[in-house]
């Protein structure tokens, strides 16, 4: 969720706008979005081309399939438990299952039932 505040100097008022997207984390898209932003700000491309690139980026499918994201969530959660928190072998499996549950909830349940997105956030 992004909060944007627009201020009006003439009548000393402001307006806050919220932009909500489905609960997905796509850092690869975030990097590409930053590249488009940088190109527009440094006059490498025009605003029209930048806007078209952002629209294309938003419509693009995810880089990895859902099953790959679930596997990566399991592996990362298990390794973070052991390497960062000194967890045991049993803790590693439990943390992996917890990460797998959260990734499943994020990738499948929240998309179909937006009512649960507030709970997940």
Q: Per DSSP, what share of the residues sits in E-state strands of 2 or more residues?
A: 5-15%
What do the pLDDT scores average to?
A: 83
The sequence of SSEs as H and E is EEHHHHH
The total of helices stands at: 5
Strand order, largest beta sheet: 1-2
Could you name the ranges where pLDDT drops below 50 across 5 or more consecutive residues? none
Structural class from helices and strands?
Answer: mainly alpha
Helix content: 55-70%
| Ends distance | 9 Å
Global Rg:
20 Å
Biggest sheet descriptor: 2 strands, antiparallel
> How many distinct beta strands?
2
Q: What gross morphology would you assign?
A: elongated
Structural account:
The model has no long low-confidence stretch (mean pLDDT 83). The protein has 5 helices and 2 strands. A two-stranded antiparallel sheet has the order 1-2. Strand 1 (2-8) and strand 2 form a beta hairpin. It has 121 residues and is mostly helical. It has a domain at 27-61. The chain is elongated and about 60 Å long. The longest helix has 24 residues, at 89-112. Helices cover 63% and strands 12% of the residues.
Topology at a glance:
Elements: E1 2-8, E2 13-19, H1 27-41, H2 47-59, H3 66-85, H4 89-112, H5 117-120
Helix pairs in contact: 1-2, 3-4
